[in-house]
Automatic annotation (TrEMBL):
Domain of life: Bacteria
GO BP terms in the entry: cell wall organization; peptidoglycan catabolic process; peptidoglycan turnover
Domain named N-acetylmuramoyl-L-alanine amidase: residues: 47-192
Pfam families: Amidase_2
The enzyme's E.C. designation: 3.5.1.28
InterPro entries noted in UniProt: Amidase/PGRP_sf (IPR036505), Amidase_domain (IPR002502), NAMLAA_amidase_2 (IPR051206)
Species this protein is from: Muriicola jejuensis
Protein name listed in UniProt: N-acetylmuramoyl-L-alanine amidase
Signal peptide: none
Alphabetical keyword list: Cell wall biogenesis/degradation, Hydrolase
Reaction catalysed by this enzyme: Hydrolyzes the link between N-acetylmuramoyl residues and L-amino acid residues in certain cell-wall glycopeptides
GO molecular function, one term: N-acetylmuramoyl-L-alanine amidase activity
Length: 224
């Protein structure tokens, strides 16, 4: 026997559809190149850097990492991720693998959110933690292009969106990644492969954390 939808039930159905519509239209899909070569390089990176032999390119997200690109424009930032292989001028990063850097999301200065990679595919954006981390890059971060209020709002929205979708345990800024050395999530095998980071800035991180504290993310490992 078919159940009748009550007025209250219809209202909730409409509200749910509205929420789904807002979430699906707020993200603009703009995929970077992910061809057979990038898939092979991703698998090679996971094997060489993390010792994950015969692993797939897929991840189970447990962490969100916020970044800035230090590139002033959307197109320049997108182009930095689009190529499959790392550019030759990035010597140190290139020595750690031919796979180009990438991120799952790119937030423009007007707050527009672009999805560059499927959320469960590994991107190369944070040493030691790529196998479990979703990356959010923000266009800018230079002296002339500081991160904007629109980007802040979009980062907060994205953290909420992703935390509702996945079992996210940690929210970190890129500059905090080395705190995880020795942690169970840390898989980088080379103790010499580290880069100093400042992104996305302590004030930006503090504001995002305050706005998303309802998720009760785990505290960061204490620095020795």
């Amino acid at each position: 026997m078919r159940k009748e939808i009550t007025g209250k039930g219809l209202l909730w159905l409409c509200f749910s559809l509205l929420l789904w519509s807002c979430a699906s239209t707020r993200i603009v899909d703009r995929p970077i190149v992910f061809d057979a070569q990038r898939e092979q390089l991703t698998q090679a990176y996971m094997a060489e850097r993390y010792g994950l032999k015969d692993s797939s390119i897929y991840i189970t997200p447990r962490m969100i990492v916020l970044h800035w690109t230090a590139i002033p424009t959307l197109e320049g930032s997108f182009d930095a991720f689009d190529d499959t292989t790392i550019p030759q001028w990035r010597t140190m990063v290139g020595e750690a693998g031919k796979l180009n850097v990438s991120s799952h999301f790119l937030v423009d200065r007007d707050g527009t959110v672009y999805r560059l990679l499927p959320e469960t595919v590994m991107g190369r954006h944070v040493i030691g933690l790529n196998h479990c981390a979703l990356g959010i890059e923000n266009v800018g971060g230079t002296a002339d292009t500081p991160l904007t209020e629109a980007q802040l709002r979009s980062n907060i929205w994205l953290v909420n969106y992703l935390s509702n979708k996945y079992d996210i345990e940690y929210l970190i800024g890129h500059y905090e990644y080395t705190l995880f050395e020795g942690h169970e999530l840390w898989l980088e095998k080379d103790p010499a492969y580290r880069t100093e980071k400042e992104d996305p800035g302590q004030e930006f991180m503090a504001r995002v954390r305050k706005a998303t504290r309802k998720w009760n993310f785990k505290p960061l490992p204490e620095q020795e």
